[in-house]
Amino acid sequence: MKLATIGYEKETQPVVIDRLKGAGVEVVIDVRAVASSRRAGFSKTLLAASLNEAGIGYVHLRELGTPKPGRIAARAGRVGEMHEIFEAHMAEPKAQLELAKATELARDKKVALLCYEASAGDCHRSIVARRICEVLSCGIEDL
Q: Burial letters for 105-123: b for 16+ Cβ neighbours within 10 Å, e otherwise?
């Protein structure tokens, strides 16, 4: 079993959905703190409807998103700082609860964690994926 991650930074919504379908993804877990986007098709309501139309479930777990100081650090290219901020955030009870929800979803279904950044290594979703896979003993596949 593999947990997928995907970033939409350089892609259109149809390309992202095709990748998800091609990988057999059943549920997308949106790990953005703010599930709105200037990129067409990636704001929460429209994305959820489009995924549903494609036969893919959608769950937004806001507490698995990067807090504002981490987003500011990431935009400034300070990825290490963003990772430190996010690791601290993950110790908070609400984040732990949503991490448990994500882990349970990934236990029974093919799941993809979705965020903006094209490179998972530059994104907090790699931390979320690693934590889930530590519990489930699964691999990570970047789509």
A: bbeeebbbbbbbbeebebb
Regions of the chain where pLDDT drops below 50: none
Q: What is the pTM of this model?
A: 0.94
User: What pLDDT score was predicted for residue 70?
Assistant: 95
Backbone Cα Rg of the chain: 14
First-to-final CA distance of the chain: 15
Q: What is the DSSP letter of 64?
A: G
- Distance, in Å, from the CA atom of 28 to the CA atom of 5, rounded to the nearest integer, reads 9
State the Cα–Cα distance between residues 56 and 50, nearest whole angstrom.
9
Element containing residue 88 per DSSP (H, E): helix 79-89
Bridge partners of 4? 112, 141
CATH 1.10.10 fits domain 2-136: no
CA distance 112 to 8: 12
- Tokens at 13, concatenated: 């919504």
**Number of helical (H) and strand (E) elements in the chain, helices listed first:** 6, 5
